[in-house]
């Protein structure tokens, strides 16, 4: 019996051969349309990325994302290592290459130096430059010390082709460890349990909000802004921290800008929201998909189908973000075991009337 | 209500005769056989209390189908005698006593309002109830621990159930049994738990009667309390 990874390699091989066959047939038919059609239908393309038209006014560009890999040491757990390697392969295969790759947090499972070291090594294989964000799994063993050693600041901003990017650390919680004298590992394990009944809500916190106010002070209101946060910067389901406790205050700082997008990790699923002028998108995890929260799902979210428990890659993946000249973004979900899906700016701008992503056909309950 | 429901469910008589050869009840018909022979087999009902000796049935003998039906009917009658007519009526309607008294239908409409009606005597006290709940909670807590542990289920790669199923989400215990096309078998909840132990956790499947497996089953079921059963749902 082949193990799952061998099966995956075999499938991948098959896929590449099919692509070659397809290319030959297309060549004979001299019909690019057929190929695009086949690719869009997902008949053969879990590993390919479709080029997406951007109605370019200013400079349009694309970046890729990888998120929530939850690495243990390789000797303990190969599975999640395989998954992040798959994402690195995917992104390196993009042609043209994305302008950069954004990593959405939770690179490590328990914040251990060896886990972070391993993750850092793996991400070094990416051809495009990498921008990092921290997640709670990276942070709570040593309050970010090892993470910062590898990747630098957890809060920062940068400008790229006319867009102002902000990266936040949205996983700050009040001190629950000093009182009961928890060891660092106990603190980490408590934080790593999503359904911990004693969990504390994530925040961006006063200090970072001050920083953000300052950072944004010099940015013109018609400059497109893209914010990265590990947790969604809104309130969905507190019990699992699909939630940021001071979300409204952060949103208020962003409200004056004409074009704002927030892209978050943590939730391991397709999630879409719009609050005022702000578009929100979740990222997929490379490690596992999470069930949808029992409450608070945003109206504009089109849920992804339930995952197949018999396929370790189903519901997982990576993706790309196409930033139009206007600064609005189309979010592409590159699922490994199913058709890719796009949630476009048009869908959000039209409040869900236009460009609806295909609805789920395998219901969650 | 659950108390009475439990009591009634205990008494699904025919299929679960408990043979207690040493217990003989004189009240349920005289033994026909001579004193020199072995005593008749006596049987305890599923309530664990009502005992009846089966006239003429000797240890090692099997009842013929017709006779078995008769005996089952007699056993139910002896339970009826021990429980009283009202409970018997409820048993026959196959509803818990309290529901029967409260809910619609002609009989219920004529019944006096629940508040005015005297409660039936019961030997189960609040302390019994507490004890049962405490015991049940022990199982569920044990299951919670195992479910949230990367090792207790024999997992070898650091993964635990809660990582993918926080609060028991997406485990759908109410949908079992159901056919799993991937394994080409009808699965019970515990089969699927075992599948997840073997695969995402990379452990070894547990024996059906393993207390660890049973505790996880108990925890998962407890997370869906109140959800209607829906076997076969996908």
Number of strands of chain A: 14
Q: Compute the average pLDDT of chain B.
A: 79
* Beta-strand percent range of chain B: 5-15%
Oligomer class: heterodimer
Labels describing this entry:
heterodimer, A: 365 residues, alpha/beta, Purple Acid Phosphatase, chain A, domain 2, 2 domains, six-stranded mixed β-sheet, 10 helices, B: 234 residues, mainly alpha, Cytochrome Bc1 Complex, Chain D, domain 2, three-stranded antiparallel β-sheet, disordered N terminus
Report on the structure:
In chain A, 29% of the residues lie in helices and 17% in strands. With 365 residues, chain A is an alpha/beta fold. Chain A is globular. Mean pLDDT of chain A is 89; it is low at 19-56. Chain B folds into two domains: 3-92, no CATH class; 126-222, Cytochrome c-like domain (Cytochrome Bc1 Complex, Chain D, domain 2). Chain B is built from nine helices and five strands. In chain B, helix 6 (126-147) packs across helix 9 (211-222) and helix 8 (189-198) packs across helix 9 (211-222). The longest helix of chain B is centred in the middle third of the chain and has 22 residues, at 126-147. The two termini of chain B are 31 Å apart. Mean pLDDT of chain B is 79; it is low at 1-35 and 103-109. The chains are: A alpha/beta (365), B mainly alpha (234). At the A-B interface, loops of A face helix 7 and helix 8 of B.
């Amino acid at each position: 019996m082949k193990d799952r990874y061998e099966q995956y390699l075999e499938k991948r091989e098959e896929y590449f051969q099919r692509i070659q066959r397809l290319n030959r047939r297309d060549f004979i038919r001299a019909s690019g349309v057929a190929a695009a059609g086949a690719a869009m239908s997902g008949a053969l393309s879990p590993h390919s990325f479709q080029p997406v038209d951007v109605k370019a006014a200013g400079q349009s560009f694309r970046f890729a994302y990888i998120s929530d890999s939850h690495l243990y040491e390789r000797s303990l757990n190969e599975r999640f290592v395989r998954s992040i390697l798959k994402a690195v392969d995917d992104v390196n295969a993009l042609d043209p290459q994305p302008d950069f790759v954004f990593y959405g947090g939770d690179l490590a499972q328990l914040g251990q130096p060896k886990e972070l070291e391993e993750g850092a090594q793996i991400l070094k294989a990416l051809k495009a430059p990498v921008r990092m964000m921290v997640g709670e799994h990276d942070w709570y063993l040593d309050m970010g010390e090892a993470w910062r050693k590898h990747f630098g600041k957890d809060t920062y901003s940068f400008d790229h082709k006319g867009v102002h990017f902000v990266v936040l650390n949205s996983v700050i919680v009040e001190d629950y460890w000093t009182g009961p004298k928890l060891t660092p590992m106990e603190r980490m394990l408590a934080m790593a349990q999503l359904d911990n009944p004693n969990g504390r809500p994530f925040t961006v916190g006063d200090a970072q909000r001050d920083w953000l106010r300052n950072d944004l002070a010099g940015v013109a209101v018609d400059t497109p802004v893209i914010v990265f946060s590990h947790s969604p910067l809104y309130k969905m389901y507190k019990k699992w921290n699909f939630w940021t406790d001071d979300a409204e205050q952060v949103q208020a700082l962003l409200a004056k800008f004409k074009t704002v997008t927030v892209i978050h990790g943590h939730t391991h699923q397709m999630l879409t929201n719009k609050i005022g002028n702000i578009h929100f998108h979740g990222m997929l995890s490379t490690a596992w998909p999470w069930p949808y929260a029992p409450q608070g799902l945003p109206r504009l979210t089109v849920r992804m189908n339930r995952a197949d428990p018999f396929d370790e890659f189903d519901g997982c993946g990576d993706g790309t973000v196409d930033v139009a000249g206007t600064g609005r973004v189309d979010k592409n979900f590159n699922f490994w075991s199913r058709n890719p899906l796009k949630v476009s700016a048009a869908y959000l701008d039209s409040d869900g009337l236009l460009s609806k992503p295909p609805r789920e056909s395998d219901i969650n309950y | 209500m659950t108390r009475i429901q439990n009591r009634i469910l205990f008494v699904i008589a025919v299929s679960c005769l408990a043979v207690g050869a040493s217990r003989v009840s004189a009240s349920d018909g005289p033994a026909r056989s001579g004193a020199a022979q072995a005593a008749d087999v006596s049987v305890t009902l599923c309530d664990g209390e009502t005992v009846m000796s089966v006239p003429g049935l000797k240890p090692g003998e099997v009842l013929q189908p017709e006779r078995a039906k008769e005996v089952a009917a007699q056993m139910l009658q002896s339970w009826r005698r021990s429980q009283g007519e009202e409970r018997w009526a409820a048993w026959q309607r196959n509803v818990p006593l309290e529901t029967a008294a409260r809910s619609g239908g002609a009989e219920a409409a004529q019944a006096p309002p629940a508040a005015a009606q005297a409660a039936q005597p019961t030997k189960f006290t609040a302390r019994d109830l507490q004890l049962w709940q405490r015991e049940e909670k022990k199982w569920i807590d044990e299951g919670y621990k195992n479910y949230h542990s990367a090792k207790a289920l024999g997992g070898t790669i650091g993964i635990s159930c809660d990582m993918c199923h926080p609060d028991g989400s997406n485990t759908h215990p109410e949908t079992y049994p159901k056919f799993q096309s991937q394994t080409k078998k009808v699965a019970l909840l515990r089969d699927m738990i075992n599948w997840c132990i073997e695969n995402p956790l990379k452990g070894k499947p547990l024996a059906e009667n393993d207390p660890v497996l049973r505790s996880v089953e108990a925890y998962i079921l407890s997370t869906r309390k109140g959800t209607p059963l829906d076997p076969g749902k996908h």
